[in-house]
Write a structure and sequence with these properties.
By secondary structure, this protein is of the alpha+beta class. The chain has two domains: 162 residues, no CATH class; 67 residues, Wnt (Wingless and Int-1), C-terminal domain (Endo-n-acetylneuraminidase fold, 2-Layer Sandwich), CATH 3.30.2460. It is built from six helices and seven strands; from the N terminus they run H-H-H-E-E-H-E-H-E-E-H-E-E. The strands form three sheets. It has a three-stranded antiparallel beta sheet with strand order 5-7-6, with no helix packed on it. It has a two-stranded antiparallel ribbon with strand order 1-2. Strands 3-4 form a two-stranded parallel ribbon. Helix 2 runs antiparallel to helix 3. GO terms for molecular function: cytokine activity; frizzled binding.
Protein backbone atom coordinates (compact mmCIF):
# COMPACT_ATOMS: atom_id res chain seq x y z
CA UNK A 1 0.00 0.00 0.00
CA UNK A 2 2.95 2.35 0.48
CA UNK A 3 4.28 1.84 -3.05
CA UNK A 4 2.96 3.38 -6.23
CA UNK A 5 1.82 0.20 -8.02
CA UNK A 6 -1.60 -0.12 -9.65
CA UNK A 7 -2.46 -2.68 -6.94
CA UNK A 8 -1.77 0.02 -4.35
CA UNK A 9 -4.06 2.36 -6.29
CA UNK A 10 -6.87 -0.19 -6.12
CA UNK A 11 -6.21 -0.80 -2.42
CA UNK A 12 -6.44 2.90 -1.56
CA UNK A 13 -9.55 3.44 -3.67
CA UNK A 14 -11.52 0.50 -2.30
CA UNK A 15 -10.50 1.30 1.30
CA UNK A 16 -11.74 4.88 0.95
CA UNK A 17 -14.89 3.64 -0.75
CA UNK A 18 -15.45 1.10 2.02
CA UNK A 19 -15.18 3.70 4.81
CA UNK A 20 -17.51 6.05 2.92
CA UNK A 21 -20.04 3.28 2.29
CA UNK A 22 -20.03 1.90 5.85
CA UNK A 23 -20.33 5.30 7.54
CA UNK A 24 -23.09 6.40 5.14
CA UNK A 25 -25.13 3.28 5.91
CA UNK A 26 -24.49 3.63 9.65
CA UNK A 27 -25.73 7.23 9.59
CA UNK A 28 -28.97 6.23 7.88
CA UNK A 29 -29.48 3.36 10.34
CA UNK A 30 -29.03 5.70 13.33
CA UNK A 31 -25.96 3.88 14.64
CA UNK A 32 -23.84 7.05 14.82
CA UNK A 33 -24.78 9.90 17.14
CA UNK A 34 -23.04 12.71 15.21
CA UNK A 35 -24.77 12.28 11.83
CA UNK A 36 -28.23 11.68 10.45
CA UNK A 37 -30.02 10.91 7.19
CA UNK A 38 -28.55 12.27 3.99
CA UNK A 39 -30.14 15.05 1.95
CA UNK A 40 -31.33 15.01 -1.67
CA UNK A 41 -30.88 18.20 -3.66
CA UNK A 42 -33.40 19.59 -6.13
CA UNK A 43 -36.82 21.19 -6.29
CA UNK A 44 -38.55 17.82 -6.08
CA UNK A 45 -36.82 16.72 -2.89
CA UNK A 46 -40.11 17.03 -1.00
CA UNK A 47 -41.37 13.92 -2.77
CA UNK A 48 -38.68 11.82 -1.15
CA UNK A 49 -39.28 9.98 2.10
CA UNK A 50 -37.39 7.43 4.14
CA UNK A 51 -33.79 7.93 5.28
CA UNK A 52 -31.15 8.54 2.61
CA UNK A 53 -27.68 7.06 3.07
CA UNK A 54 -25.48 9.99 4.12
CA UNK A 55 -22.66 9.55 1.61
CA UNK A 56 -21.58 13.18 2.04
CA UNK A 57 -20.80 12.63 5.72
CA UNK A 58 -19.27 9.25 4.89
CA UNK A 59 -16.88 10.84 2.39
CA UNK A 60 -15.95 13.60 4.84
CA UNK A 61 -15.22 11.06 7.57
CA UNK A 62 -13.18 8.97 5.12
CA UNK A 63 -11.01 12.00 4.30
CA UNK A 64 -10.38 12.75 7.96
CA UNK A 65 -9.58 9.12 8.68
CA UNK A 66 -7.42 8.24 5.66
CA UNK A 67 -6.08 11.40 4.02
CA UNK A 68 -4.50 12.80 7.16
CA UNK A 69 -1.63 10.32 6.77
CA UNK A 70 -0.68 11.71 3.35
CA UNK A 71 1.06 14.97 4.21
CA UNK A 72 4.20 14.79 2.06
CA UNK A 73 3.75 16.66 -1.23
CA UNK A 74 5.36 14.11 -3.51
CA UNK A 75 4.03 12.04 -6.37
CA UNK A 76 3.31 8.97 -4.21
CA UNK A 77 1.23 10.96 -1.71
CA UNK A 78 -0.55 12.73 -4.55
CA UNK A 79 -1.64 9.48 -6.15
CA UNK A 80 -2.73 8.03 -2.80
CA UNK A 81 -4.95 11.07 -2.15
CA UNK A 82 -6.22 11.04 -5.73
CA UNK A 83 -7.11 7.32 -5.69
CA UNK A 84 -8.80 7.73 -2.29
CA UNK A 85 -11.03 10.40 -3.81
CA UNK A 86 -11.86 8.28 -6.86
CA UNK A 87 -13.12 5.55 -4.51
CA UNK A 88 -15.34 8.01 -2.64
CA UNK A 89 -16.76 9.48 -5.84
CA UNK A 90 -17.72 6.02 -7.10
CA UNK A 91 -19.84 5.54 -3.97
CA UNK A 92 -21.33 9.05 -3.92
CA UNK A 93 -22.20 9.37 -7.61
CA UNK A 94 -23.75 5.92 -7.96
CA UNK A 95 -26.42 6.09 -5.31
CA UNK A 96 -29.51 4.05 -6.16
CA UNK A 97 -33.20 4.78 -5.67
CA UNK A 98 -34.79 2.14 -3.45
CA UNK A 99 -38.45 2.00 -2.59
CA UNK A 100 -40.71 0.19 -0.16
CA UNK A 101 -44.42 -0.31 -0.76
CA UNK A 102 -47.07 0.18 1.91
CA UNK A 103 -50.66 -0.96 1.65
CA UNK A 104 -53.13 -3.74 2.26
CA UNK A 105 -52.27 -7.22 0.97
CA UNK A 106 -49.00 -6.13 -0.55
CA UNK A 107 -50.51 -3.37 -2.69
CA UNK A 108 -48.39 -0.32 -3.41
CA UNK A 109 -50.86 2.45 -2.53
CA UNK A 110 -48.12 4.37 -0.74
CA UNK A 111 -44.47 4.13 -1.64
CA UNK A 112 -41.50 5.31 0.41
CA UNK A 113 -38.32 5.97 -1.59
CA UNK A 114 -34.81 6.92 -0.57
CA UNK A 115 -31.33 7.23 -2.05
CA UNK A 116 -29.06 4.36 -0.97
CA UNK A 117 -25.36 3.79 -1.44
CA UNK A 118 -24.81 1.17 -4.17
CA UNK A 119 -24.25 -2.45 -3.24
CA UNK A 120 -20.57 -2.72 -2.33
CA UNK A 121 -20.09 -5.62 -4.73
CA UNK A 122 -20.97 -3.18 -7.52
CA UNK A 123 -18.52 -0.63 -6.12
CA UNK A 124 -15.80 -3.28 -6.11
CA UNK A 125 -16.57 -4.26 -9.70
CA UNK A 126 -16.34 -0.64 -10.86
CA UNK A 127 -13.02 -0.11 -9.10
CA UNK A 128 -11.72 -3.43 -10.44
CA UNK A 129 -12.48 -2.18 -13.95
CA UNK A 130 -10.57 1.02 -13.17
CA UNK A 131 -7.66 -1.10 -11.91
CA UNK A 132 -7.42 -2.86 -15.27
CA UNK A 133 -7.29 0.56 -17.00
CA UNK A 134 -5.02 2.35 -14.49
CA UNK A 135 -2.84 5.09 -15.96
CA UNK A 136 0.60 6.45 -15.15
CA UNK A 137 0.43 9.55 -12.95
CA UNK A 138 3.53 11.00 -14.60
CA UNK A 139 1.89 10.94 -18.02
CA UNK A 140 -1.74 11.59 -17.11
CA UNK A 141 -1.26 14.40 -14.57
CA UNK A 142 2.28 15.70 -14.52
CA UNK A 143 3.28 15.56 -18.16
CA UNK A 144 6.20 13.14 -17.66
CA UNK A 145 7.69 15.28 -14.89
CA UNK A 146 7.03 13.60 -11.57
CA UNK A 147 8.84 16.38 -9.70
CA UNK A 148 6.02 18.81 -10.48
CA UNK A 149 3.86 16.80 -8.07
CA UNK A 150 5.37 18.89 -5.29
CA UNK A 151 3.31 21.83 -6.57
CA UNK A 152 -0.02 20.01 -6.64
CA UNK A 153 -2.67 18.56 -4.39
CA UNK A 154 -5.65 16.64 -5.78
CA UNK A 155 -8.59 18.95 -6.55
CA UNK A 156 -11.75 17.11 -5.51
CA UNK A 157 -14.07 18.85 -7.95
CA UNK A 158 -11.88 17.74 -10.86
CA UNK A 159 -12.15 14.06 -9.89
CA UNK A 160 -15.22 12.20 -11.13
CA UNK A 161 -16.47 8.60 -11.01
CA UNK A 162 -15.10 8.27 -14.55
CA UNK A 163 -11.57 9.29 -13.53
CA UNK A 164 -8.97 6.51 -13.86
CA UNK A 165 -6.87 5.15 -11.03
CA UNK A 166 -3.28 6.39 -11.13
CA UNK A 167 -0.03 4.53 -10.51
CA UNK A 168 3.58 5.71 -10.28
CA UNK A 169 5.55 2.47 -10.63
CA UNK A 170 5.00 -0.40 -13.02
CA UNK A 171 3.85 -3.47 -11.12
CA UNK A 172 6.22 -6.44 -10.84
CA UNK A 173 5.06 -9.79 -12.22
CA UNK A 174 4.55 -11.22 -8.71
CA UNK A 175 5.57 -14.60 -10.13
CA UNK A 176 9.13 -14.62 -8.78
CA UNK A 177 10.35 -13.83 -5.29
CA UNK A 178 11.73 -10.28 -4.88
CA UNK A 179 12.75 -9.39 -1.33
CA UNK A 180 13.48 -5.79 -2.34
CA UNK A 181 9.81 -5.28 -3.18
CA UNK A 182 8.52 -7.68 -0.49
CA UNK A 183 7.12 -9.95 -3.24
CA UNK A 184 7.00 -13.57 -2.07
CA UNK A 185 6.37 -15.09 -5.51
CA UNK A 186 3.99 -17.95 -6.24
CA UNK A 187 6.25 -20.96 -5.67
CA UNK A 188 4.54 -23.17 -3.09
CA UNK A 189 1.14 -21.53 -3.57
CA UNK A 190 -1.93 -23.76 -3.54
CA UNK A 191 -3.88 -23.63 -6.79
CA UNK A 192 -6.98 -25.17 -8.32
CA UNK A 193 -6.17 -27.32 -11.33
CA UNK A 194 -9.86 -27.53 -12.31
CA UNK A 195 -10.41 -23.78 -12.34
CA UNK A 196 -10.17 -21.31 -15.21
CA UNK A 197 -10.31 -18.28 -12.90
CA UNK A 198 -7.64 -16.35 -10.99
CA UNK A 199 -7.08 -19.31 -8.62
CA UNK A 200 -6.23 -21.68 -11.48
CA UNK A 201 -2.84 -23.38 -11.62
CA UNK A 202 -2.26 -21.97 -15.11
CA UNK A 203 -2.59 -18.43 -13.74
CA UNK A 204 -0.98 -18.72 -10.31
CA UNK A 205 1.98 -20.86 -11.34
CA UNK A 206 3.04 -18.50 -14.15
CA UNK A 207 3.66 -21.35 -16.57
CA UNK A 208 6.05 -23.25 -14.26
CA UNK A 209 3.63 -26.11 -13.69
CA UNK A 210 2.47 -27.65 -10.43
CA UNK A 211 2.84 -30.74 -8.26
CA UNK A 212 0.10 -32.95 -6.83
CA UNK A 213 0.53 -33.61 -3.12
CA UNK A 214 -1.32 -35.74 -0.59
CA UNK A 215 -2.04 -33.93 2.68
CA UNK A 216 -3.87 -34.54 5.92
CA UNK A 217 -5.84 -31.45 6.95
CA UNK A 218 -7.01 -30.78 10.50
CA UNK A 219 -10.36 -28.99 10.73
CA UNK A 220 -12.84 -28.29 13.50
CA UNK A 221 -16.06 -30.33 13.41
CA UNK A 222 -19.11 -31.34 15.49
CA UNK A 223 -19.07 -27.98 17.24
CA UNK A 224 -21.44 -27.45 20.17
CA UNK A 225 -22.46 -24.31 22.02
CA UNK A 226 -22.37 -24.54 25.82
CA UNK A 227 -24.28 -22.06 27.95
CA UNK A 228 -22.76 -19.65 28.58
CA UNK A 229 -20.62 -18.82 26.55
CA UNK A 230 -18.37 -21.44 25.04
CA UNK A 231 -18.08 -23.36 21.80
CA UNK A 232 -16.39 -26.75 21.89
CA UNK A 233 -15.34 -28.66 18.78
CA UNK A 234 -13.67 -31.92 17.90
CA UNK A 235 -10.66 -32.23 15.64
CA UNK A 236 -11.43 -33.99 12.39
CA UNK A 237 -8.72 -35.06 9.99
CA UNK A 238 -9.36 -35.11 6.27
CA UNK A 239 -7.10 -36.60 3.62
CA UNK A 240 -7.03 -34.89 0.25
CA UNK A 241 -4.91 -34.20 -2.81
CA UNK A 242 -3.78 -30.63 -3.36
CA UNK A 243 -2.06 -28.80 -6.22
CA UNK A 244 1.02 -26.72 -5.40
CA UNK A 245 2.88 -24.39 -7.77
CA UNK A 246 6.46 -25.39 -8.64
Amino acid sequence: MTRGFSESAFGHAITAAGVTHSVARACAAGRLYNCSCGMVRGKRAWKWSGCHDNTKFGARYSRRFLDVRERAKDVISFTHLYNNEVGRKVVRRNREVRCKCHGMSGSCEVRTCWKAAPDFRRVGDMLKEKYTRAMSAAVEVFGNSANTARKYRPVRREISPDSPLLFVERSPTYCERDTRLAVVGTTGRYCNRNSTGPDSCDTLCCGRGYDQRHEVVNRKCQCRFKWCCEVTCKDCFEEKWVSVCK
